[in-house]
Amino acid sequence: MAEEYYVLDPEHCDPARLKKEREKARKLKKTQWWLTLLNRGICHYCQNKFRPNQLTMDHVVPLARGGTSTQGNIVPACRACNQDKKLETPAEKLLREEKLK
Questions:
Q1: Residue 5: pLDDT above 70?
Q2: What is the radius of gyration, based on Cα positions, of the chain?
Q3: What percent of the chain is predicted at pLDDT more than 70?
Q4: Rounded distance, CA 67 to CA 101, Å?
Q5: Domain count within the chain
Q6: Position 4 pLDDT exceeds 70
Q7: Which residues, 6+ apart, have CB-to-CB distance to 85 below 8 Å?
Q8: Contact between residue 34 and residue 56 where contact means Cβ atoms under 8 Å apart
Q9: Rounded distance, CA 55 to CA 12, Å?
């Protein structure tokens, strides 16, 4: 399948904005909210069970696409799902999977 390309809004890719959002994400990693999600060990996307150190923090709407580092936009994901998602939103991922059927 051909590689997907996204036109990114320069406002969303502003280095100062990205730095601020990444700092917010680092702070969220230290909260009880995040630790609870990790300890459950469930990948948001594939729903498989993993050890906490096998899960990564994923922005459902990627920062480069305008997402923010808030509890409503951050989920635990296994490395495979996180890498497969790339810069897609969940709706785009569903559409891509439908095309493959």
A1: no
A2: 14
A3: 93
A4: 29
A5: 1
A6: no
A7: 45, 58, 77, 93
A8: no
A9: 26
Beta strands, E only, the chain: 55-59, 74-78
What local confidence, expressed as pLDDT, does residue 1 receive? 46
Q: At what angle do helices 32-40 and 15-29 cross, to 10 degrees?
A: 70
Q: How crowded is the C-beta side of 44, counted as CA atoms within 13 Å?
A: 18
* pTM of the predicted model as reported, rounded to 2 decimal places: 0.84
Q: How many CA atoms lie within 13 A of 26 on its CB side?
A: 6
Measured in whole angstroms, the distance separating CA 66 from the mean position of its chain's CA atoms is: 12
Which tokens go with 20? 């601020």
Domain that holds residue 38: 28-100
Report helix, strand or coil for 68.
Answer: coil
* Cα separation, 88 vs 99, whole angstroms: 15
CATH number at residue 49: 1.10.30.50
Q: Position 13: which residue type?
A: C
